[in-house]
Amino acid sequence: MTADNAVASPPETSGGATAADPSAAAGGSTLRNLRIGSLVVFVVAFAIAIVLSLGEEHEDTEITIGEHVTRGSGALTFNLDTIWTTGIAGGLVLLLGFLARRALTRHPDDHVPTKLQLFWETIVNQVNTQVQDNLGRVHPYVAPLAVSLFFFILFANWLELLPTELNHDTHLLPAPTADTNLTYAMAILVMVSVWVYGIRQKGVKGYFKHFVEPFPILLPLNILEELIKPLTLALRLFGNIFAGGIMLALIGLLPFYVLWAPNVLWKVFDMAIGGIQAFIFALLTVLYFAMAGAGHGDDHDEAHDEDHLDDHDDVTDASGEAASAEKTPVPAT
Predict the structure, then answer these.
(1) Can you say how many angstroms the Cα of residue 93 is from the centroid of all Cα atoms in its chain?
(2) Nearest Cα to 150, choosing from 288, 241, 285, 279?
(3) Can you count the helices (H) and strands (E) in the chain?
(4) Which residues contact 111 (CB under 8 A, 6 or more apart)?
(5) How far apart are CA 55 and CA 78, in angstroms?
(6) How do residues 81-103 score in pLDDT, each as one tens digit?
(7) Burial class (CB in 10 A: 0-12, 13-18, 19+), 75
(8) 23 falls in which pLDDT band (50, 70, 90)?
(9) What's the rounded Cα separation, in Å, for the pair 229 and 191?
(10) Euclidean distance between CA atoms 314 and 326, whole angstroms
């Protein structure tokens, strides 16, 4: 036997192939069988669903939209489902705030932030950053308003994701933001606050002066733009959430054996849409406040800078005169 043949070679099977690790081979075969089996089950289930759907007659495929549980008489009508879901969303915001405060003050000496506190502080810090970047400081009214609107709209949008629809006529927790009554109310609250803020920052004359800028001929367009802001703010939120409700209603018409797949996928997508719409509403609120107070802080800063430069020039001139007086030689007597 030579030295080359001294190296042990792996055992060979009867067919001449090298024997592989039994556990690795079994694992690879199991994964391959699982993939093939899952694909077969999916194809068969999809084919059966198509066949049964074609042969199934739906007695009631009508989708009713915009219907609410109402009470009232005459000119006053109350959408009760919107009222109680609004109360639930507001209660969740208060509960989140109280829980975050409790977690913050539980162990003040060696406090370790909880996940809830980190989530709350992350949102609050982001909103404070937006307010400071646009208004120049963390305003004591604008920042809490934007934070409250974000969490309220977020919870209100996500109520639609809960499986509380008993049938096509009974939905216990519909999204209140899919009702224009709520979105218009929030938009009016924001815009009235913006107008009050602008008047307090610039004064009545200074605030209404921007309607004739840059040219007086643009007065009608500027007034129309100001009146359209609450409409777009309200209808943007309403349209996106209302469309999500329609999609869920359409998915609900599918047979129950294929309902779960598109339902889960759409609810995940709808959750993202709800978060994005809450962020957009809060961000536009901050931007509207910044636009209402634009120019006031700039004029104050420019005047402050001019005064500072004048004081600096006076100090420079005085120091220069003192230096020249010290350098002037005194004639000898």
Answers:
(1) 14
(2) 279
(3) 8, 2
(4) 104
(5) 43
(6) 889 999 999 999 999 888 888 87
(7) exposed
(8) low
(9) 8
(10) 18
Dist CA 211 CA 219 (whole Å): 5
Distance set, CA 194 to CA 19, 142, 185, 207, 216 (Å): 78, 9, 14, 11, 23
H/E run at residue 71:
strand 70-73
Q: What is the pLDDT of residues 185-223, one digit of tens each?
A: 999 999 999 999 999 988 888 888 888 888 889 899 989
DSSP string, 256-288: HHHHHHHHHHHHHHHHHHHHHHHHHHHHHHHHH
Residue 31, Cβ density class (10 Å: 0-12 exposed, 13-18 middle, ≥19 buried): exposed
Distance, CA of 153 to CA of 283 (rounded, Å): 12
Contact between residue 116 and residue 103 where contact means Cβ atoms under 8 Å apart:
yes
User: What is the number of other CB atoms lying within 10 angstroms of the CB of residue 136?
Assistant: 15
Least confident of 27-41, 137-151, 195-209: 27-41
Residues 248-276: tens digit of each pLDDT: 777 777 776 677 777 778 888 888 999 99
CB neighbour class for 259 (10 Å; exposed up to 12, middle 13-18, buried from 19): middle
